[in-house]
């Protein structure tokens, strides 16, 4: 039977092998094939953890400050940097070691606070706050992480009638998410799901592609392109069999790795013009609220 000090050394070596060295073959020897995962951030089993690390940025690194062991349990106080998030993660990891391998895991995670944010005036990790340059780098959301965060929302916009729109939006957006079509008018996440579904009913082949992504601090800017062929009246334009292609700009704010709000602009005037018969005039000034009411009304009439 191994003692507490041996378990502590084993877990520290395992974390370094997986998170820092990225030696998956060697790391597999430290983790039980029946590994039990309790973290809300990681998929089940050893494969869930390894796949998470494989998908993480190359800059990911784990640092340990404190390790305490009591029998088969090891508790670590550490920091994950370069994790593709706006902030480093301060982590309390609890690991159970059985027969010389990591068998079970729990964690508590917090975003690392800056000196200005710390009410205690003391750092969450080590004896000093991160250098200003390092903190600024962490605050800059990487493009890869931004794409991962927004992707479920755009998945919901591609042929929405075939998707679980509510589930995809719940994956991407907070429950208090607000979608602004003007500086004052906004829709809730549930209302936005209704818009997506109604648009999908009117435009069954709706496609919404991400063309470019920029990030600035906790903001994500997406330049997208929407295409489709309406089969029902859309914004006053009756279906003609003609398709549209229009540009969209979305400015998202991120909070705790999910979308908190969005301000967006789509060229629906141009889209309407493309599907109208020659010489017809498109309608202008449509907001999200108008879209929700009008598209719902159109589909009720057609049902």
> Total number of helical segments?
9
Shape: elongated
By CATH, the architecture of the largest domain is named: Roll
Tell me how many strands there are.
11
Level-1 CATH class name of the largest domain: Alpha Beta
**Segments where pLDDT lies below 50 for 5+ residues?**
298-303
> What's the rounded overall pLDDT mean?
87
Strand order, main sheet: write it out: 7-6-11-10-9-8
Helix content: 25-40%
Radius of gyration: 24 Å
- What is the H/E order? HHEHEEEEHHHEEHEEEEHH
Under CATH, the topology of the largest domain is which? Nuclear Transport Factor 2, Chain: A
**What is the first-to-last residue Cα distance?**
70 Å
Helical/strand content category: alpha+beta
Assembly state (oligomeric): single chain
Overall domain count = 2
Taking the sheet with the most strands, its summary is: 6 strands, mixed
Into which percentage range does the β-strand content fall? 25-35%
Walkthrough of the structure:
By secondary structure, the protein is an alpha+beta fold. The protein has 2 domains: 4-139, Nuclear Transport Factor 2, Chain: A (Roll); 143-302, Nuclear Transport Factor 2, Chain: A (Roll), CATH 3.10.450.50. The protein is 33% helix and 32% strand. It has 9 helices and 11 strands. The strands form 2 sheets. It has a 6-stranded mixed β-sheet with strand order 7-6-11-10-9-8. Helix 5 (143-157) runs antiparallel to helix 6, helix 6 packs across helix 7 (189-202) and helix 7 packs across helix 9. The relative contact order is 0.10.
């Amino acid at each position: 039977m191994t003692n507490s000090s041996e378990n502590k050394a084993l877990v520290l070596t395992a974390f370094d092998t997986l998170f820092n060295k990225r030696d998956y073959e060697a790391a597999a020897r430290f983790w039980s094939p029946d590994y039990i995962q309790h973290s809300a951030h990681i998929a089940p089993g050893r494969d869930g953890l390894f796949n998470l690390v494989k998908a993480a940025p190359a800059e990911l690194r784990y640092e340990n400050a404190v390790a305490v062991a009591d029998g088969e349990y090891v508790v670590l106080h550490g920091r994950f940097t370069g994790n593709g998030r706006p902030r480093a993660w301060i982590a309390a990891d609890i690991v159970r070691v059985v027969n010389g391998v990591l068998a079970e895991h729990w964690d508590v995670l917090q975003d690392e606070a800056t000196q200005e944010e710390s009410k205690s005036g003391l750092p969450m990790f080590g004896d000093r706050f991160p250098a200003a340059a390092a903190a600024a780098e962490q605050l800059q959301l990487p493009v890869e992480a931004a794409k991962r965060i927004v992707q479920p929302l755009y998945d919901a916009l591609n042929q929405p009638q075939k998707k679980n729109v509510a589930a995809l939006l719940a994956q991407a957006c907070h429950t208090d998410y607000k979608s602004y079509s003007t500086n004052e008018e906004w829709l809730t996440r549930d209302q936005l799901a209704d818009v997506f579904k109604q648009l999908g009913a009117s435009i069954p082949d709706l496609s919404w592609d991400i063309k470019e992504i920029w990030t600035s601090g906790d903001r994500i800017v997406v330049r997208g392109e929407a295409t489709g062929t309406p089969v029902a009246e859309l914004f006053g334009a009756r279906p003609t069999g003609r398709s549209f292609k229009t540009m969209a700009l979305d400015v998202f704010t991120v909070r705790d790795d999910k979308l908190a709000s969005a301000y967006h602009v789509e060229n629906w005037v141009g889209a309407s013009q493309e599907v109208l018969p020659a010489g017809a005039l498109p309608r202008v000034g449509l907001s999200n609220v108008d879209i929700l009411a009008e598209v719902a009304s159109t589909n009720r009439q057609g049902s």
